[in-house]
Design goal:
Distance between the termini: 32 Å
Helix content: 40-55%
Largest sheet: 3 strands, mixed
Number of helices: 16
Shape: elongated
Strand content: 5-15%
Radius of gyration: 22 Å
Number of domains: 2
Strand order of the largest sheet: 4-8-7
Mean pLDDT: 85
Order of helices and strands: EEEHEEEEEHHHEHHHHHEEEHHHHHHH
Structural class: mainly alpha
Length: about 475
């Protein structure tokens, strides 16, 4: 699921000077939160100390050993750093509970029967953390790696921090509590990525992409769009994590309803809420849909020479699922591959990151964004070009609103589909050769910037 899908392309046209500004550290394709982007081993260190402590209802298996080691490390980090950022006294979580969601006779936690609950949770009533060793942990390990499990537990420990510091109570809006916890998880994982943990290692390329994927996937349903039980869209949750990873716990403590509204800024309203509970509005991926999309993109980007769309074999390589040939100014689509990534899939039912029509349509839009860049005479085969592509894709999608009066209107969940694609294959944030910007962290930042920006602003930011 997390393997990169690369598309073939052609050499870029010669660059010409473009007025702009230097790429800031935040948007540097070679760095993440001030750390260099790198791939390598992630997970428990070979020389990590043995996990210590008691786990209620444990089966003594590898899933519980990993969870206990993670909670040892998370507790040690916050015991050392709590007083620097948060009020009150640090109080370690009292009880750790393992359960199997497939077992109807498992333990009750927080006055609730946990059978069937594929998740992890913090219970303020007992100051305890519980996790599902039967389904959740194996699923997270398979798709998001061992550090995906660590990230989930770091999020739950973030809830414990809220209560011990009195940043939140049972009346606090769920959206605020969830984003604070995402942010606190980012603070801890930055410590691991910096190489300061004696128990775990986390590299900032593919491994961090997978942790972010787990953050999006492993969340609870909401009861109503935008209501008090909303947990936040993928954009909201990743941005909160990024605040902690690139900033610090003081930024997490400052998250409240007003901060979240400010951070959402000028994002289209329908992109700031969860897709859960809303009807799935997926269009068929076929030639008629793509023709409509091209007309809409012509209207938004208004190039002097609009690119052509072809489903014929690409003259500059195979189109998997789409590629752009600057020599002929043509977007080539391999329809079967595009339909495969646009097939609607639900996280809960299919055990994958959410995908749907916008997973596919955002890929085609990103190839059109390369045509816009060709017209401006910039390089098309660099990491900066890859991020510029993501930004320009965001520009187009940010205008696909009811207010825009276009034939395409994004619905709740469409941005989540694009963000999931940015993490799992990266095509939307790739250059003309299909090479993605290495860090999903930065790919999402560039796409999010575009949603509330203009074409010129993308060229200025990524020059």
């Amino acid at each position: 699921m997390c393997a990169a899908v690369l598309v073939a392309g052609c050499a870029s046209t010669p660059p010409v000077a473009v007025e702009g500004r230097a790429t800031s550290m935040l948007f540097n394709p070679e760095r993440v939160g001030g750390l260099p982007v790198a791939d390598g081993p992630s997970g428990p260190r070979p020389d990590a100390p043995r996990p210590v402590g008691e786990v209620d209802n444990t089966d003594g298996g590898p899933e519980d050993r990993l969870a206990l080691l993670a909670l040892n490390d998370i507790e040690e980090f916050w015991r050392t750093n709590y007083a620097k950022y948060l009020p009150g006294e640090f109080e370690p979580v009292r009880d750790l509970v393992s359960y199997d969601s497939d077992d109807p006779d498992g333990p009750w936690v927080c006055l609730s029967d946990l059978s069937g609950l594929v998740n992890a949770l913090y219970c303020p009533l007992s100051h305890s953390v519980a996790w599902d060793r039967g389904v959740l942990v194996p699923t997270a390990m398979r798709y998001f790696g061992e550090m995906g499990v660590v990230g989930v537990l770091a999020h739950e420990y973030g809830h414990a921090l809220q209560y011990m510091s009195e940043l939140a109570d049972r009346q606090t809006e769920v959206l605020v509590k969830e984003q604070q916890a995402d942010c606190f998880a980012g603070v801890y994982l930055r410590y691991v990525a910096a190489g300061d943990s004696e128990r775990f290692a986390l590299t900032t390329g593919t491994s961090l992409n997978r942790v972010l994927g787990g953050l999006i996937y492993l969340r609870d349903p909401v009861e109503a769009e935008g209501g008090g039980d909303a947990h936040g869209s993928a954009l909201d949750r990743v941005s909160a994590f990024q605040m902690g990873f690139a900033g610090g716990a003081d930024q997490c403590a400052a998250i409240d309803s007003a901060e979240i509204r400010k951070r959402q800024g000028d994002l289209p309203k329908q992109l700031t809420y969860d897709a859960y509970g809303d009807p799935v509005l997926d269009s068929a991926i076929d030639e008629d849909t793509l023709a409509t999309l091209m007309r809409v993109l012509n209207s938004i980007y208004q190039p002097a020479e609009a690119p052509a769309l072809s489903t014929a074999p690409s003259a500059c390589g195979t189109a998997q699922p789409a590629s752009y040939c600057p020599d002929t100014n043509t977007i080539h689509v391999e329809m079967a591959a595009l339909q495969a990534i646009g097939e609607p899939k639900n996280e809960e039912e299919d055990r994958v990151l959410v995908q749907g029509d916008n997973t596919a349509l955002s890929v085609v839009t990103s190839r059109y964004a390369l045509a816009v860049q060709r017209e401006r005479g910039v390089d098309l085969d660099t990491p900066v070009a890859a991020l510029r592509t993501a930004c320009l894709t965001g520009v187009a999608q940010g205008q696909m609103t009811e207010e825009g009066g276009l034939d395409f209107v994004l619905s709740p969940g469409d941005a989540d589909e694009a963000v999931a694609g940015l993490l799992t294959n990266g095509v939307v944030a790739s250059d003309v050769n299909g090479t993605p910007a290495p860090a999903g962290f930065t790919r999402i930042l560039a796409y999010r910037l575009g949603l509330s920006s203009s074409i010129d602003e993308c060229f200025q930011r990524f020059s």
